[in-house]
Amino acid sequence: MKELRFTLNGGELAVHVRDDERLLDVLRERFGQLGTKEGCGKGECGACTVLIDGRVVNACLTLALEVEGCEVLTVEGLAGPGGTLSPVQQAFVDHGGIQCGFCTPGMILSAHALLVQRPDPTDDEIRVALAGNLCRCTGYVQIVESVRRAAQALADDLSEEPPAPDGTKEAGSADPAARATKEVGSV
Ligand code: FES
Ligand code: FES
């Protein structure tokens, strides 16, 4: 067993793991991150998607020890205080992006990563970003629509942001990507 230190959804953790232990199992069994699903277990379905330092990664193919010193984000980390859904989560609820829900955490994390990089993606960019996430319920039209609506909600929030007392926007709001990072990642 080796000691592993990493950040999970903003909290610093330490745990002892075996050399061959998968990140997927550590997240689910040690830390109760049950939104991280096991589908295929071999890197094909995306149900186990998490973000490691902002990158979309399959937790079933990642050894736990590989995240030493990294920031890991699971779908549980997207919700705000009191369980307030993030804009992406809310859009999936509102626009039919969820059917059975098995693929949904992975889809939402991939969408989250996309919107941090591309706050105003095209439909093709959304499809490419979600290409590693398979939905057995085949609800892709609603899923793409949900991501499009989440992007719109974030853009609307940005345009409604009140000006600072000196007449400028709040610090950081001039950068849409930074704002998307803040909003998508914090609520
Ligand atoms: S369970 Fe990891 S990609 Fe399918
Ligand atoms: S909503 Fe059922 S697998 Fe996607």
Word description of this protein:
This protein is of the alpha+beta class and 187 residues long. It folds into 2 domains: 2-78, Beta-grasp domain (Ubiquitin-like (UB roll)); 81-186, Orthogonal Bundle (DNA polymerase, domain 1). 37% of the residues lie in helices and 13% in strands. It contains 6 helices and 5 strands. It has a 5-stranded mixed sheet with strand order 2-1-5-3-4, with helices on one face. A hairpin with a 2-residue loop joins strand 3 and strand 4 (55-58). Helix 2 (87-94) packs across helix 5 and helix 3 packs antiparallel against helix 6. The termini are far apart. Bound molecules: FE2/S2 (inorganic) cluster (2 copies). The site of one FE2/S2 (inorganic) cluster has 11 residues, from loops.
Compact summary:
The chain has 6 helices and 5 strands. By secondary structure, it is an alpha+beta fold.
Q: What average pLDDT do the residues reach?
A: 89
| Fraction of residues in H or I helices | 25-40%
Name the CATH superfamily classification of the largest domain: [2Fe-2S]-binding domain
Strands side by side in the biggest sheet = 2-1-5-3-4
Gyration radius over CA: 17 Å
**What is the CATH class name of the largest domain?**
Mainly Alpha
Q: What overall geometry do the principal axes of the alpha carbons give?
A: globular
The tally of strands reads: 5
Bound molecules: FE2/S2 (inorganic) cluster
- What oligomeric arrangement do these chains adopt? single chain
Instruction: Estimate what percentage of residues fall within beta strands.
Output: 5-15%
Domains, number: 2
Structural class label:
alpha+beta
- Unreliable spans are 167-187
CATH fold-level label of the largest domain: DNA polymerase, domain 1
Main beta-sheet annotation: 5 strands, mixed
Total helices: the number is 6
The first-to-last residue Cα distance is 36 Å
Element-by-element helix/strand order:
EEHEEEHHHHH
Instruction: Report the CATH architecture of the largest domain.
Output: Orthogonal Bundle
